[in-house]
Protein backbone atom coordinates (compact mmCIF):
# COMPACT_ATOMS: atom_id res chain seq x y z
CA UNK A 1 0.00 0.00 0.00
CA UNK A 2 1.47 3.35 -1.04
CA UNK A 3 1.05 6.29 1.28
CA UNK A 4 1.94 9.72 -0.14
CA UNK A 5 3.61 11.90 2.44
CA UNK A 6 4.76 15.47 2.55
CA UNK A 7 8.54 16.06 2.58
CA UNK A 8 9.64 14.59 5.86
CA UNK A 9 11.01 16.85 8.54
CA UNK A 10 12.69 16.01 11.78
CA UNK A 11 10.63 16.04 14.91
CA UNK A 12 10.69 19.47 16.54
CA UNK A 13 13.42 19.68 19.15
CA UNK A 14 12.48 19.90 22.77
CA UNK A 15 13.07 23.23 24.39
CA UNK A 16 16.48 23.96 25.88
CA UNK A 17 16.85 22.99 29.53
CA UNK A 18 15.37 25.35 32.08
CA UNK A 19 18.88 25.88 33.43
CA UNK A 20 19.82 27.66 30.20
CA UNK A 21 16.77 29.94 30.37
CA UNK A 22 17.49 30.61 34.05
CA UNK A 23 21.11 31.44 33.30
CA UNK A 24 20.12 33.91 30.60
CA UNK A 25 17.49 35.47 32.88
CA UNK A 26 20.01 35.84 35.72
CA UNK A 27 22.56 37.33 33.36
CA UNK A 28 19.98 39.82 32.10
CA UNK A 29 19.11 40.86 35.66
CA UNK A 30 22.78 41.28 36.53
CA UNK A 31 23.34 43.31 33.39
CA UNK A 32 20.40 45.60 34.20
CA UNK A 33 21.73 46.03 37.75
CA UNK A 34 25.19 46.78 36.36
CA UNK A 35 23.83 49.46 34.01
CA UNK A 36 21.79 51.00 36.83
CA UNK A 37 24.87 51.20 39.07
CA UNK A 38 26.97 52.56 36.22
CA UNK A 39 24.43 55.28 35.46
CA UNK A 40 24.26 56.27 39.13
CA UNK A 41 28.04 56.40 39.46
CA UNK A 42 28.43 58.46 36.31
CA UNK A 43 25.85 60.95 37.56
CA UNK A 44 27.59 61.32 40.93
CA UNK A 45 31.24 61.03 39.96
CA UNK A 46 33.77 63.65 40.97
CA UNK A 47 34.56 65.81 37.92
CA UNK A 48 38.13 66.15 39.19
CA UNK A 49 38.53 62.39 39.53
CA UNK A 50 36.41 60.67 36.87
CA UNK A 51 35.73 56.92 36.97
CA UNK A 52 37.99 54.59 35.02
CA UNK A 53 35.99 53.65 31.92
CA UNK A 54 38.29 50.69 31.18
CA UNK A 55 36.86 48.76 34.13
CA UNK A 56 33.31 49.19 32.86
CA UNK A 57 34.35 48.19 29.36
CA UNK A 58 35.98 45.00 30.66
CA UNK A 59 32.86 44.09 32.62
CA UNK A 60 30.66 44.65 29.56
CA UNK A 61 32.94 42.41 27.48
CA UNK A 62 32.85 39.70 30.16
CA UNK A 63 29.05 39.76 30.33
CA UNK A 64 28.80 39.61 26.55
CA UNK A 65 31.16 36.62 26.46
CA UNK A 66 29.12 34.77 29.08
CA UNK A 67 25.89 35.43 27.16
CA UNK A 68 27.40 34.15 23.91
CA UNK A 69 28.66 31.00 25.64
CA UNK A 70 25.24 30.26 27.13
CA UNK A 71 23.55 30.74 23.74
CA UNK A 72 26.20 28.58 22.02
CA UNK A 73 25.63 25.76 24.51
CA UNK A 74 21.87 26.00 23.92
CA UNK A 75 22.33 25.87 20.14
CA UNK A 76 24.66 22.86 20.35
CA UNK A 77 22.11 21.01 22.45
CA UNK A 78 19.30 21.78 20.02
CA UNK A 79 21.45 20.51 17.12
CA UNK A 80 22.15 17.33 19.07
CA UNK A 81 18.44 16.83 19.76
CA UNK A 82 17.55 17.41 16.09
CA UNK A 83 20.19 14.91 15.01
CA UNK A 84 18.92 12.23 17.38
CA UNK A 85 15.30 12.84 16.32
CA UNK A 86 16.21 12.62 12.62
CA UNK A 87 18.02 9.30 13.00
CA UNK A 88 15.27 7.82 15.19
CA UNK A 89 12.57 8.72 12.65
CA UNK A 90 14.60 7.66 9.60
CA UNK A 91 15.41 4.24 11.10
CA UNK A 92 11.69 3.48 10.83
CA UNK A 93 12.05 3.60 7.03
CA UNK A 94 14.47 0.66 6.86
CA UNK A 95 12.90 -2.19 4.92
CA UNK A 96 10.22 0.04 3.40
CA UNK A 97 10.11 1.12 -0.23
CA UNK A 98 10.33 4.88 -0.64
CA UNK A 99 10.39 7.41 -3.44
CA UNK A 100 12.76 10.30 -2.78
CA UNK A 101 13.43 13.42 -4.84
CA UNK A 102 16.92 12.99 -6.32
CA UNK A 103 18.35 13.09 -9.83
CA UNK A 104 21.43 11.15 -8.69
CA UNK A 105 21.49 7.35 -8.76
CA UNK A 106 24.29 4.85 -8.17
CA UNK A 107 25.46 2.64 -11.01
CA UNK A 108 26.11 -0.80 -9.57
CA UNK A 109 26.66 -3.98 -11.55
CA UNK A 110 25.76 -2.30 -14.83
CA UNK A 111 22.42 -0.85 -13.75
CA UNK A 112 21.20 2.50 -12.45
CA UNK A 113 17.51 3.30 -12.01
CA UNK A 114 15.50 6.50 -11.86
CA UNK A 115 11.83 7.44 -11.82
CA UNK A 116 10.69 10.69 -13.44
CA UNK A 117 7.28 12.31 -13.40
CA UNK A 118 5.90 14.15 -16.43
CA UNK A 119 3.02 16.63 -16.48
CA UNK A 120 0.47 16.57 -19.30
CA UNK A 121 1.17 18.15 -22.67
CA UNK A 122 4.75 16.97 -23.21
CA UNK A 123 5.56 16.63 -26.94
CA UNK A 124 9.36 16.47 -26.81
CA UNK A 125 11.36 14.48 -24.28
CA UNK A 126 15.08 13.86 -23.85
CA UNK A 127 16.95 12.10 -21.05
CA UNK A 128 20.64 12.82 -20.45
CA UNK A 129 22.99 10.92 -18.15
CA UNK A 130 25.97 12.80 -16.71
CA UNK A 131 28.96 11.53 -14.77
CA UNK A 132 30.34 13.03 -11.56
CA UNK A 133 32.34 15.57 -13.60
CA UNK A 134 29.16 16.83 -15.29
CA UNK A 135 30.04 15.28 -18.66
CA UNK A 136 27.30 13.76 -20.82
CA UNK A 137 27.88 10.01 -21.09
CA UNK A 138 24.58 8.83 -22.57
CA UNK A 139 21.24 10.12 -23.86
CA UNK A 140 17.83 8.71 -24.68
CA UNK A 141 14.57 9.94 -26.24
CA UNK A 142 11.70 7.84 -24.83
CA UNK A 143 8.60 7.63 -26.97
CA UNK A 144 6.20 7.46 -24.02
CA UNK A 145 5.49 11.06 -23.03
CA UNK A 146 2.22 10.48 -21.19
CA UNK A 147 1.58 12.23 -17.89
CA UNK A 148 2.62 10.37 -14.76
CA UNK A 149 5.56 8.37 -13.42
CA UNK A 150 8.02 6.67 -15.77
CA UNK A 151 10.96 4.39 -15.00
CA UNK A 152 14.36 4.70 -16.64
CA UNK A 153 16.87 1.87 -16.26
CA UNK A 154 20.33 2.73 -17.60
CA UNK A 155 22.70 -0.07 -18.60
CA UNK A 156 25.82 1.81 -17.51
CA UNK A 157 27.24 2.15 -21.04
CA UNK A 158 28.24 5.34 -22.80
CA UNK A 159 27.10 6.37 -26.29
CA UNK A 160 29.78 4.19 -27.90
CA UNK A 161 28.62 1.12 -25.98
CA UNK A 162 31.60 1.07 -23.62
CA UNK A 163 30.79 0.13 -20.01
CA UNK A 164 31.41 2.84 -17.44
CA UNK A 165 32.70 2.39 -13.87
CA UNK A 166 30.31 2.06 -10.96
CA UNK A 167 29.52 5.26 -9.09
CA UNK A 168 27.04 8.11 -8.91
CA UNK A 169 25.46 9.46 -12.11
CA UNK A 170 22.91 12.22 -12.68
CA UNK A 171 19.81 12.13 -14.85
CA UNK A 172 18.61 15.32 -16.51
CA UNK A 173 15.11 15.36 -17.98
CA UNK A 174 14.33 17.90 -20.72
CA UNK A 175 10.59 18.08 -21.42
CA UNK A 176 8.91 20.59 -23.74
CA UNK A 177 5.33 21.26 -24.79
CA UNK A 178 3.98 21.90 -28.28
CA UNK A 179 5.14 25.53 -28.17
CA UNK A 180 8.70 24.52 -27.32
CA UNK A 181 8.42 25.80 -23.75
CA UNK A 182 10.06 23.84 -20.95
CA UNK A 183 7.73 22.00 -18.61
CA UNK A 184 8.69 20.78 -15.15
CA UNK A 185 9.65 17.14 -14.67
CA UNK A 186 10.61 15.75 -11.27
CA UNK A 187 13.22 13.02 -10.89
CA UNK A 188 13.26 10.44 -8.09
CA UNK A 189 15.06 7.37 -6.86
CA UNK A 190 12.81 4.57 -5.71
CA UNK A 191 13.46 1.38 -3.82
CA UNK A 192 13.85 -0.20 -0.38
CA UNK A 193 15.73 1.66 2.34
CA UNK A 194 18.68 -0.43 3.47
CA UNK A 195 20.54 1.85 5.88
CA UNK A 196 20.56 5.17 7.73
CA UNK A 197 23.59 7.34 8.32
CA UNK A 198 24.36 10.68 9.95
CA UNK A 199 26.80 12.83 7.96
CA UNK A 200 27.66 16.52 8.28
CA UNK A 201 24.54 17.18 10.34
CA UNK A 202 22.24 15.46 7.83
CA UNK A 203 20.38 12.18 8.13
CA UNK A 204 20.93 10.13 4.97
CA UNK A 205 19.10 7.00 3.86
CA UNK A 206 20.37 4.52 1.29
CA UNK A 207 17.96 3.70 -1.56
CA UNK A 208 19.17 1.31 -4.27
CA UNK A 209 22.72 2.00 -3.14
CA UNK A 210 22.26 5.79 -3.37
CA UNK A 211 22.41 8.03 -0.33
CA UNK A 212 19.72 10.73 -0.22
CA UNK A 213 18.55 13.19 2.40
CA UNK A 214 15.67 11.52 4.23
CA UNK A 215 13.68 14.78 4.18
CA UNK A 216 13.28 14.39 0.39
CA UNK A 217 11.09 11.29 0.76
CA UNK A 218 7.76 11.87 -1.03
CA UNK A 219 6.08 8.48 -0.64
CA UNK A 220 6.43 5.32 1.42
CA UNK A 221 5.24 1.83 0.51
CA UNK A 222 4.51 -0.54 3.35
CA UNK A 223 5.88 -4.08 2.88
CA UNK A 224 3.22 -6.57 1.86
CA UNK A 225 1.95 -8.71 4.69
CA UNK A 226 2.95 -12.38 4.34
CA UNK A 227 0.21 -14.72 3.18
CA UNK A 228 -1.34 -16.72 6.06
User: What share of residues is helical?
Assistant: 25-40%
Structural class: alpha+beta
CATH architecture of the largest domain: Sandwich
What is the element string, with H for helices and E for strands?
EHHEEEEEEEEEEE
Radius of gyration: 29 Å
Shape type: elongated
How many β-strand runs? 12
Q: End-to-end span in angstroms?
A: 18 Å
* CATH class division of the largest domain: Mainly Beta
Task: Tag the structure with descriptive keywords.
29% helix; 228 residues; 2 helices; 34% strand; Immunoglobulin-like; eight-stranded antiparallel beta sheet
Describe this structure in words.
The chain is built from two helices and twelve strands, in the order E-H-H-E-E-E-E-E-E-E-E-E-E-E. The chain has 228 residues and is of the alpha+beta class. A hairpin with a 2-residue loop joins strand 10 (202-207) and strand 11. Helix 1 (18-44) runs antiparallel to helix 2. The two termini are 18 Å apart.
